Amino acid sequence: FPSHDSQAYLDALKNTDIEAITEEQAEALRSVPQRLTPAQFRLALLHFEKLEEVEALMANPATPVAQRILFNHATYFERKNQDLNAFASVLGLTAVQVDEIFRYGAALNV
In the prediction, which pLDDT does 101 show? Predict the structure, then answer.
């Protein structure tokens, strides 16, 4: 995925003056990382207050076994993964919201 300085992304999120955002920060906000580690993904879900909801969905026996295995044992999460996007849809998350989860997660140094 396009590399960007994770600190630039976090700085841009904190910057309340849109005119003062640097080009580097703007690029960090525009780019959408395509892969997160499980820790990055879960911490981003926690930040956006979706972790408990996702964990409940994964604990639900009605959730397809393949999706539960992927969530619980993935070595990384791909933005374009069909299963990830399917459970995001079940949670009512838009594509823009999922992009924000990936941006935030990628900015974490874990």
Answer: 94
